[in-house]
Every structure is written in structure tokens, then in C-alpha cells.
Amino acid sequence: MLIALLLLAGICRPCLADEADDQYAIAAGHYARGRWQLAAEEFEVYLSKHSTHARVNQARFLLGESLLQLGRAEQAVGHFQAYLAAQPQGEFSRQARFRIAEAAFLAGNHAQAAPLLEQFAKQYPEDRLLAYALAYLGEACLARGDAASAARHFRDCLQRFPQGRLQDDCRLGLARALEKLDQHEEAERLYMAVAGKAPQRLSDEAQFRLGALYYNRGRNEDALEAFAPFEGKLSDSPWRPHALLGKGWALWKLGRLEEAKRCFESIAADAIVGLQARYWLGLTDKALGNYKAAAEVLVKTAQAAPEDDLAPQIWLHAGEALLKAGDPLGAADAFDKLIARGQAGNQWLDAALRGKIQAALQQSDHQSIDRLAQQFETACPTSRLRADVDRLRAASLVQRKQFAEAAALLEPLIKAQQSDAQHEIQDRCLLAAAYEGLKRYEDGQAVLRPAVDNINNLTGRQKTEVLLRQASLLAAMGRYPEAVPLLEACVSGELGVQTALKVRGDLAVCYARTGQLDKARRTYAQLLENTPQHPLLPVVTEQLAEAAYAVGEANWAAELFQRLGNMGRSQDEQLKGLSGMAWSLLKSGKLAEAAEKFDQLLRRNPPVAMAAEAALARGQCLEKLDRFEQSLAMYQLVVQQYPQAAQHAEALLAAARLCEKLRRFADAAGYYQRLVDDHPRSDLRETALYGWAWALLDSGRAGEGSAIFERLIGEYPQSRLAADAGYRLAQQAFSARDYPKTKKFLHAALAAQADPEVRKHAQFLLGQTAVAEEDWLEVRRLFEDFARQYSDSGLRLAAEFWVAESFFRRHELDAAEARLAQLAKQCQGRNEPWMAMIPLRQAQILGHRKKWDEAYKLASTIKAQYPDFEQQYEVDYLIGLCLHDRAELDEARKAFERVIRSPAGAKTETAAMAHWMIGETYFHQKNYEAAKRTFLAVEILYDYPKWQAAALLEAAKCCQLLGQHKEAVDLYIRITTHYRDSPYAEAAAKALQKQAGQGKPAAGGK
């Protein structure tokens, strides 16, 4: 479209009225109006009929442009090439070269596009199209996997064209490149910057890629947060299905499988990601143990997309799910679908053969196992699943009582330590079974010994398998008493009560510790039924309660601790039961009940450590329940009665923060101070200093608060809180107009580990300080740096304004005008009050150049667009000047009166000037009396010597015109005595001399 505008003048100029000219004019007219299809058709007619006409080459180029607009890039390239062949240095050669490269890029031919784009960039380093060339180069490099070059091109484009239309495309491209280069933090910032510009054409893609970055980095909670907008404000985005797929993956990683399942279900019908969603839906059901449902969805998915790249994996998981569902025939069929693809390119062949062997083993089809194992050996000789197949075949051999052959397969696995943690127990148990079959009992015990020694770290099933196998060996050796306490099967045997209690107790605890809570509950229930009064039962109960608490079963833990408290015969057991119940209730979110139990515990005078911990926890519960006074009483209990407890510093901090919440800032300051004084080595000390300073400030003790901020900076100069403290002190100093101190604190804040937001605002305040000092060169330097460094910040436009203002204040009006014009474009559609300064300064520059009509036209629009502009009085003053120049004196006076009546403008220098100009309007209307009175009021009402002196001088002239010669002389004398340093003192002195020389009062006009 830009090229269309550039060519418009040439297209539409008059030409001779012959057929060729008319045909060209018709085509060019369609082109100029954006009718691309008609333009292309008419240019083609023109070229076919008038191939020797003077404008043929121009027509070729414009035909190419039309075709490109229609998306027919390949056809367009031929016309651009024809144009260049005829006129390699022609008027549109630059655009043609770019379009050829662009067309190759848009067609996805990055290998062809990249050298053409690089040549264009080299040949036309200053061209405006270079922004597109660099952006396309970045994308082309990304497409071919050269992330480093892509990042270089994107950065180059952003640096050269910081305000270009493709800046966000480049930011997004740069983020993608940096992500591939493992520069994740910068990539994350860029994604967030582009995503934060909604509504914007790339924000949804950036939001999706931010979530994907988090997911790929294992930050699944952050990924969920990033994907969340796609179920709200971005629900219409084409990236929504991808985002929901990513959300499902993140939920899967977090173990939130039910939520993941719902997520996958919601996009299962999507045309783009539906296949993956259904695949993951099957995996989720499989992980949840819903094997039948998993198999059903996986089989249907694979059948619907037999040629998809995912099909092999889908069939594999379908087969595994069918195995788990107890359908070995269905599983074998699924694995056959995978095996049918053959060996070439089938990376899942080994897994499929293993699955078929598993299916055969479930059916005890040993003949098929031997055949499939041989097929595996031939087709997959180097597979990592070789050990799996060997152990499956060994299991088959054990079932067939071919123990020697089974041992021969298993011994190398264990000897070579090929068994992983998942299979080691299985291998050792199988080999022990083989040795048992061979009557090699000692060898069987030896191979099991590592598993027995590590029994407490095994899962319940592994323990059962090991213990059963050991018991079987011991039974085979006749050592039955040793086998009994090791296995669940032994519990029903002839055991003493205490031994049975110990076995069942340990077994219940181990079940709980490994997450087999149902077994633990059943085993514990048997203990309660069989030995309800046994003295060891409280010990078992305590251990089981602690195990339940550790694995997150807070409700059951609370029940067990309550039972411990009730059954406990000692004070210690009862206190442990009460404490454990309170903590369990707290963990399960039952705050009120937990607070009550902690209270009961405290009333029983527990040991100091337990009491301090309970009081602090009770305080935290009560605070969450908004029972602030009771909560504070608990914190105070710890503070006052347990000064040596580990919780003392934490209680002081909690009390201080709660006092702040209750707006008791003086009390908060006291707690913070005590934490600082009493715990000099506490990790909480820095936080306490920071809170102490704020509490003092909030309680009206600003000086003391500032001193504590300074102390924080002195003791922790590099910390994040010190940086924030420095910034707060700088704000105070700035408000007090102590600019040297402001700069001192800001430099300290910037030297520390400031949060990005603090750093940004500190740098901006540094620029504002330069503004206050009217150091305009420093203002320019600081805000130019700020605008570059924080190009995506909401403060960037304000920074750009101050750069323009620095030019204005230094009377570099051309530069100021250019900056303001650029800034006005960037602010289109926005109306923050400060932005009114842009048209105000533009209008003032017009006024300076005596372009009063233009200045008036612009200034008159400001109030309607910016109704809350505090400096509207400056606008009214300028409007008054414009009207004064047009001799519309009554209207001018109204504008000046608005200035002096403005709440913001009254008593400012602008008001003094406006008041002076009101006098001028009366003077020009020859109402000298009103003029005199107005000028005299200026000297009385304002404290600006320049304008006071100027007003007295004008008042004296009015007096002369009114014949009030003595009053005029008095006014001249007042100027020379009271305003001798003003630029009007000399004129007053000359007027006095003239009066004296004439020997009579002077008369005449201005």
C-alpha cells in the first residue's frame, strides 16, 4: 500500500489519449484504488497488446505488485524479474529486488529467500524496506535452525527501526530465537512485552509461546497461568486449541490428571490439535488406571489417522492399555498394527514386540513367546528393551519349570547391573525362583539379600514380592519361624501377640509411607480389633499418624493423633496426640478446629518448644480467620514468654505485620525494632528494617523512618529492599526539592539489586530531577537512555516527551517540533492528561513562529481532548495571544481571565503574564483607565519582578495618556528603585530624564 501511494502521482498524471495510454490509465486507476484483481487483469491486457509502449516496464512492476497483493507470489516474481532484466537500475528496481526476495520468503522457500534478502540489506542499508528484510531474514534463519543468526537480524531490526511496524514481530521472533539459544530469561521478558500489548495482532501468539516456554522449562504452574487467558479474553484466538493442549500437558506434569483429562476432552474435536488431544486423553486415562477407556480412545484415534506420525505411538499405548485392562488378544492386535509397519523407520518395533510377548505371557502362550523373542533378537539386536524381553522370557521359563534356562537369562542381567530400579526386584525374585527350582537355596537367599537389606525403601508390591519369595525360600529350607514376621501371609500364622502387633504395625507404617493407605488402614484396623489394649499400640499409632501426615493424608492423621491422645497413658503421648491433631487439622485447612486444638494444647502447659510453636501456629490460624485481636495475643505470647524459642523472631515479624494491617503503626514499629535489636543474625532482620521504616513513616515519624531506610541501605547496600528504600528516600528528597540528596539516593538504589520496576522508576525519577534542576542537556541524555532501555514501558512516551521538552527549553525548535510530531503520532487514540503537553508545545512553537492562526486552531482542540489537563491555563494563555494577534481583544481577554482564575495557574508566572496581557487588551482599546488599573494589579498580585516592572512601566504610560503626570513619574521612580535589576529599569530612567528635560509632563502614545 505504501508503494501504491508513492506511485500514485505518477499513475494519475495526464497522458495522451491513445489506446495504450487509456489501457494503462484504466489499470493504474484500479491499482491506485486497491482493486488488485481488476488491476492485474487490465495490466495483463495492456502488456499483451502494447508490449512496446513507453510504460511497459512500469506496468510489469505494478502487475507484479497486484499479483502479490492477491497472494499469487510465484506469478508476481516473474514480472519483477522481467522488470529488472529490462531496467536493472530503474525507478522501481529496489522495490522489485525486495519483492522477489519477499515472495520467496512468503512462499516458504527460505533457502532461496535468505541470500536475496541478505543481498538487499547489503545493497540498500538505509532503505525503509530494510526493516522488512531484516525481519524476514530472522524468520528464515529460524526456519533453518540458525537461532544465533536469527537473533542477530531481529536485534538489528529493532535497533535500526525501534518505532517500525514490525517491532513486535521482531520482538516475538527474537524471543523464539533466544529460547532456542537457551537464553530463557530474556525470551520470557520479550514474550511478556508483546503479550501485554493486547489487543494486538501478535499478543495471543506471544501469550501462547510464553506458556510453552514455561512448560518446556518445567515451570508448569507458570505455564498454567500463562495459558489461562485463552479460556477468557483470548478465547477467540486461533492459538486457543494449542494453548489448551499445553495446559493439559502442564496439568499432566503436575499430576493433576483429572483436570488434564477435562482439558484434552475440550479440544478433542479440534481440526488441528484434536489428534494430539485424543492421544493425550488416552494417555491420561491410562495414567489414571482407566485402562479400558484409555484403550478405547487410543484405538479409535489410531484407526482415524493410520498414516499420521503419531499412529505408531498411539497403537503402542493402546496395546499397553489393553494389556492392563486384561485384554491380551486386543493388545496383541494393537501391537500387530505397529509391527505391520515393518522394521524400516519404525522406532517402536521393539516396544511392540515386547508388548506381544507380554500379551502371550498373560495367556501362558509359551510357544508364541519363544517365537516372538527370536523375532525380537533378529529385528532389534541393539534395542534397549533387550533386558525386558529376557526377563519376560525368563518368567515364561520359570512357569514352564525350565529353571536352568531362566537362570541363564537372568544372571547376566544382575551381574552386569543392567536391571534398573523398576525391574531389579523382579529380576532378583525371578532368579531366586529359578534357584529355588534348582534347589540352590543359598544362592536364592544371596540374590535376594540386597532387596531384603533395602526393604524399607521398596514399594508395597515389591516388598510383598521379596518377602513372599524369601518366605518361599525359607519354607523350602524348612526355616518357617524366620519367614513368618517377614510377610503378610505370615500374619495369619501362629505368632505371639506382640510379634504379630509389631509385624502388622511395621507393615501398616510401610504401607502408609509408600502410599498404600487402604492396606495401611485395613492392617491398622486389624490391630485395633485384635489388640486394642496392647501397650505397644500407642507407639504404632504415633508412627502411623506421622506417616499419614507426611504423605498428605491430613484427615486420617488427625484421626490417628486423636486416638493417640485418647489412648496415651503418659503426658508425653497425650501432648503428642493433641499437637499432631492440631497440625493435621491445620494442614487439611480446618483453621477454626486447628486453632481450638492448639488452644487446648497450650492450656496443658506443654514444653517450651512445643508451646512456642503451637502459639505461633494458632496465631496464624486466627489471623487467616480474621480474628485479629486473638491472633495478635498469640504472637505476643510467643514474644513475651518465649524469647529463646526458635519462633521468637518469626512471631515478632508476624505481630508487626498484623499491627500494620490493624493500622497500629507505632506498635508495628516497636515489634520491628525489637526483631532488629534482639536477633542481629536473623534472616528476617533485613525485612524487619524495611518494615520498621514504613511503620515509622505511616505513624507520622517521617524523619525516623527515613533514618531507618538509610540504615537499611548502609547495612544491606546491595539488597533488593535497600534499593527500594533508596528509591523511597529519593522520592521524599524530591518532594522536599532537595535534588542533590535525591540523586544520591537514586544512584544508591540503582547500584543495588533493585527489582526491575524499582530500577525503572528510579531511572525515571532521575530524569525528573534533572527536569526540576532545569539541566536540559542532562534531561535529554537520561530520558533518551530511558526510552531505549524501557521501550515497552508505559513511561516511554513520557520519556520521549521530556526529550522533546529538552529541545524546546533550549530553543532548538526545529528538533523539538520534529520530536513532538513523532510523539503525537504515537499517542493517537490516547488521552492521558499529560499528553496535552504535546499539542500545547506544538502550538507554542507555531506561536513563536508567528503562525497564530495555526497555533489557535491546534490549541483550541486541547480542552475537549484533554478535559483533565492541569496546565490548561497555559493553553488559555496561548489562545489569548492568538486572539490578541487577530485583534479579537474581548475574546482574548476572556482567555487571559481563564488563566488567572485557574486553580492550577493562579499566581504562576503564566498568570502574571496573562494579567499583563489583559492590561494590553484594554490599552489597545484605548481604555487607559482600565489598562492602568490592570497593570497596577499585576505588581501587587504577583511576585515576578520582570513582569511587575513591565506592568508598572505600562501603567506609567497609561497615566501619561490620561494626563496623570505625577503618578507616571512616581511609577517610573518605583521601577528604578525597586526593580533596578529588571530589563525595564533603563526605560523608566530615560522616561524620567525626558520628563526633566522638557520641564513638563510627557505626553503621547506607547
Overall description:
This protein is mainly α and 1006 residues long. Among the domains are: 384-493, Serine Threonine Protein Phosphatase 5, Tetratricopeptide repeat, CATH 1.25.40; 872-998, Tetratricopeptide repeat domain (Serine Threonine Protein Phosphatase 5, Tetratricopeptide repeat, Alpha Horseshoe). It contains 56 helices and no strands. The radius of gyration is 43 Å and the shape is flat.
The N- to C-terminal Cα distance equals 59 Å
Q: What is the CATH fold-level name of the domain at 872-998?
A: Serine Threonine Protein Phosphatase 5, Tetratricopeptide repeat
Oligomer: single chain
Helix/strand-derived category reads mainly alpha
Task: Please name the CATH architecture of the domain at 872-998.
Answer: Alpha Horseshoe
- What's the CATH class label of the domain at 872-998? Mainly Alpha
Residue-averaged pLDDT: 86
- Major sheet characteristics: none
Proportion in helices: over 70%
Short description:
The chain has 1006 residues and is mainly alpha-helical. The chain contains 56 helices and no strands.
Task: Present the secondary structure layout.
Blueprint: H1 2-12, H2 19-32, H3 36-49, H4 56-69, H5 73-86, H6 93-106, H7 110-123, H8 130-143, H9 147-160, H10 167-180, H11 184-195, H12 203-216, H13 220-227, H14 240-253, H15 257-266, H16 274-287, H17 291-304, H18 311-324, H19 328-339, H20 349-362, H21 366-379, H22 386-399, H23 403-415, H24 424-437, H25 441-453, H26 460-477, H27 480-483, H28 488-491, H29 497-513, H30 517-530, H31 537-550, H32 554-567, H33 571-587, H34 591-603, H35 608-624, H36 628-641, H37 648-661, H38 665-678, H39 685-698, H40 702-715, H41 720-735, H42 739-751, H43 756-772, H44 776-789, H45 796-809, H46 813-826, H47 837-848, H48 852-859, H49 862-865, H50 872-885, H51 889-901, H52 909-924, H53 928-941, H54 945-961, H55 965-978, H56 985-998
Helix pairs in contact: 1-2, 2-3, 3-4, 4-5, 5-6, 6-7, 7-8, 8-9, 8-10, 9-10, 10-11, 11-12, 12-13, 12-14, 13-14, 14-15, 14-16, 15-16, 16-17, 16-18, 17-18, 18-19, 18-20, 19-20, 20-21, 20-22, 21-22, 22-23, 22-24, 23-24, 24-25, 24-26, 25-26, 29-30, 29-31, 30-31, 31-32, 31-33, 32-33, 33-34, ...
